[in-house]
């Protein structure tokens, strides 16, 4: 049997499973999925889990079942490209013929002293659960610092405001205005929501050090009770340790999403060096192309001279449960409609994934 091994049950590999586990799966191919949890986690919703506005059950999706799908629950220690083997922390070695690396990412602390030791995270479901416990255990009037005002930081701050109106929330943004790379109308809407709901947005910030219940913005010392870090990501250690060409830690690929010189290995999602910012949507679009390439390879057919350009539709974000914002086809949508759009997309995703 030909062995396709998928590392990580993220958005990219879930799309691959959805497309392959049907009547078109070649009879001589079996699939092994390796992940630290026995379910698919909706990483885009971890902010709600951490804020306490969504239960754990709402950010999990069951893995598909198929007679030729084998699921291994474990931690990936090393990827040995030359030997076509994946080593797990329990000592198990998993062989592959084709490999898709979709291991996601971890926090990038940008060498800020104390950030790794004294901040909480929403990068994994386990870390999000711990952050939830920390945030919900705070007394009234406590101060929460959220470092990073990207989509994750914005959604966490707004959802936390709804679940804990008694907390003081400070959102630290490196830019001169929130969401500075997008139209000013969108930026103003988000900032207006935060002003109305008493979330302090600190622009032009530069966190230089984090200590126990304190952080430093430039030279200013700010006392906080909890700090949540949402200020950047990087590939996981097993990918960083791979001896292949990288761009800012992410793996450089050919147009077929393969690692040059190891064309039986594909990389999908946050670990891939692509001209777009990492996102669930990007991982799924990438996965669609990987599926086409795999089918051609399995049928001994030539690959196309050029792969189509990946085009993204935009993004959607929430501001609590009733308001939101979206940037779709170069158009800005705000308010209740944007929030309903996001809820609808999430519902459809869960429905399509069983």
Automatic annotation (TrEMBL):
<keyword id="KW-0274">FAD</keyword>
<comment type="similarity">
    <text>Belongs to the NADH dehydrogenase family.</text>
</comment>
<dbReference type="InterPro" id="IPR023753">
    <property type="entry name" value="FAD/NAD-binding_dom"/>
</dbReference>
<dbReference type="GO" id="GO:0016491">
    <property type="term" value="F:oxidoreductase activity"/>
</dbReference>
<protein>
    <submittedName>
        <fullName>NAD(P)/FAD-dependent oxidoreductase</fullName>
        <ecNumber>1.6.5.-</ecNumber>
    </submittedName>
</protein>
<keyword id="KW-0560">Oxidoreductase</keyword>
<feature type="domain" description="FAD/NAD(P)-binding">
    <location>
        <begin position="3"/>
        <end position="283"/>
    </location>
</feature>
<keyword id="KW-0285">Flavoprotein</keyword>
<dbReference type="Pfam" id="PF07992">
    <property type="entry name" value="Pyr_redox_2"/>
</dbReference>
<dbReference type="InterPro" id="IPR036188">
    <property type="entry name" value="FAD/NAD-bd_sf"/>
</dbReference>
<dbReference type="InterPro" id="IPR051169">
    <property type="entry name" value="NADH-Q_oxidoreductase"/>
</dbReference>
């Amino acid at each position: 049997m030909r062995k396709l091994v998928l590392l990580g049950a993220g958005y990219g590999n879930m799309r691959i499973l959805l497309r392959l586990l049907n009547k078109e799966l070649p009879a001589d191919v079996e699939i092994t999925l390796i992940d630290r949890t026995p379910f698919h986690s909706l990483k885009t919703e971890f902010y709600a889990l951490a804020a306490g506005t969504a239960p754990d059950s709402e950010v999990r999706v069951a893995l598909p079942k198929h007679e030729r799908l084998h699921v291994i629950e474990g931690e990936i220690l090393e990827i040995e490209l030359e030997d076509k083997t994946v080593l797990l922390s329990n000592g198990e070695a998993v062989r592959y013929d084709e490999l898709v690396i979709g291991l996601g990412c971890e926090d990038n602390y940008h060498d800020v002293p104390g950030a790794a030791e004294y901040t909480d995270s929403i990068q994994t479901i386990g870390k999000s659960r711990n952050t939830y416990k920390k945030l919900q255990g705070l007394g009234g009037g406590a101060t929460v610092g959220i470092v990073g005002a990207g989509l994750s930081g914005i959604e966490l701050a707004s959802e936390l405001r709804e679940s804990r109106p008694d907390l003081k929330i400070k959102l630290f943004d490196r830019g001169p205005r929130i969401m500075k790379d997008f139209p000013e109308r969108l930026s103003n809407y988000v900032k207006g929501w935060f002003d109305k709901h008493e979330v302090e947005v600190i622009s032009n910030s530069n966190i230089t050090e984090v200590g126990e219940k304190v952080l430093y913005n430039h030279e200013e010392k700010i006392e906080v009770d909890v700090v949540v870090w949402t200020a950047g990501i990087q590939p996981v250690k097993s990918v960083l340790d791979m001896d292949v060409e990288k761009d800012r830690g992410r793996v450089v690929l050919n147009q077929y999403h393969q690692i040059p010189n190891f064309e039986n290995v594909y990389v999908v999602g946050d670990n891939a060096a692509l001209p777009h910012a990492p996102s669930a949507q990007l991982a799924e679009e990438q996965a669609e192309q990987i599926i086409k390439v795999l089918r051609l390879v399995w049928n001994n057919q030539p690959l196309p001279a050029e792969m189509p350009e990946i085009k993204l539709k935009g993004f959607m974000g929430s501001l609590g449960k009733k308001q939101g914002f979206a940037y779709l086809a170069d158009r800005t949508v705000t308010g209740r409609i944007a929030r309903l759009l996001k809820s609808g997309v999430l519902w459809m995703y869960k429905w399509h994934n069983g």
